[in-house]
Design a protein that fits this description.
By secondary structure, the chain is of the alpha/beta class. Helices cover about 45% and strands about 15% of the residues. The longest helix is centred in the last third of the chain and has 17 residues.
Length: about 300
């Protein structure tokens, strides 16, 4: 199947377990095909876990959930070597990070050492347990969540670590129609098991096709212009890093592929830019006090940057 058909089938399948959220499913798919990771911000009860699990089931991938807490150690995530008294041998017990899709719930509750272990796995796609290196399953997608309302007992992720996430997605309350539909389906028991729509081999082939999506020189210059504009905006403490430009490029290619094209257009870049840049920019205090949001800056940058013909 091509990218557009894959996206349509995926949304229909996930709809068996999730009401609405099609834009979230598309962004998760973009991250998966771009071989990136996602940071989701939302209060409890907005279906973050349900979405992640349904997404994993629909594409036939293994799924694990890690509830991050202050007492969690790196070994609890990556695994340990232990002595088996029955066999008299040392054995390796792999941790929950050994899955295709890993939901890291409340990542900002884990202590910095544990956060670093998870982020290293994200970056290197491998972990080292007692001197032995193990590759992680492919594809490998970490979906980390944060509760924006909690400020006690949390460890804020440094900017350098936030920069490793391809996308940041904000999940708010559903609209009126979605929530009423949700309640009706709950009442009638109309939620069903999600079945795989694609094999592992087919999915890896799609990831390979995304890498082959063409990006013209004009589009490269457009991406640079957007990134450069954030660095000169007086409302920001600092602009987007070169890695942000790379991630914007990769996400735009995946967006074009899911729209049925093998080339990137400005709309692809504009579509993914808010999610790519949201967690990489920091407002100056005076503008934050005035009610300016990072999203406002991103919107202005997109509107004011000249679109290539």
């Amino acid at each position: 199947m091509d990218g557009k058909e894959f996206m349509e089938r995926l949304k229909r399948e996930v709809d068996k377990a999730v009401v609405g959220k099609e834009d979230i499913i598309e962004l998760l798919t973009i991250a998966l095909l771009s071989e990136g990771h996602v940071l989701i911000e939302g209060i409890p009860g907005v279906a973050k876990t349900t979405i992640a699990k349904a997404f994993a089931n629909a594409i036939g991938l293994s799924f694990s959930r890690i509830q991050l807490t202050p007492d969690l150690l790196p070994a609890d995530i990556i695994g340990v070597v232990y002595y088996d008294q029955k066999s008299g041998e040392w054995k390796t017990k792999k941790g929950p990070v050994f899955a295709n899709i890993v939901l890291a719930d409340e990542i900002n509750r884990a202590q910095p050492k544990t956060q670093s272990a998870l982020l290293e796995a994200m970056q290197e796609r491998q972990v080292t347990i007692e001197g032995t290196t193990y590759g992680l399953p492919q594809p490998f997608l970490v979906i980390a969540t944060m509760n924006p309302l909690e400020h006690e007992g949390v460890y804020v992720l440094p900017e350098a670590q936030l920069d490793r996430f391809l996308l940041k997605i904000e999940i708010g309350f559903p609209d009126r129609d979605e929530e009423i539909t949700l309640l009706k389906r709950k009442s009638l028991g109309e939620f069903y098991d999600v079945e795989p729509i694609i094999t592992h081999e087919e999915l890896m082939a799609l990831i390979g096709e995304v890498k082959g999506v063409n990006v013209s020189d004009e589009m490269i210059e457009y991406i640079y212009a957007l990134i450069s504009a954030t660095r000169s905006d007086e409302r920001l403490l600092f602009g987007a890093s070169p890695r942000a430009g790379e991630h914007l490029l990769y996400a735009a290619k995946a967006s074009a592929f899911l729209d049925g094209r093998d080339y990137v257009i400005p709309d692809d870049v504009k579509k993914v830019a808010p999610a790519v840049l949201a967690h990489r920019l920091m407002l100056k205090a005076e503008y934050e006090l005035e009610g300016v949001r990072v999203g406002d800056v991103i919107r202005d940058v997109i509107q004011e940057t000249e679109i290539p013909v």
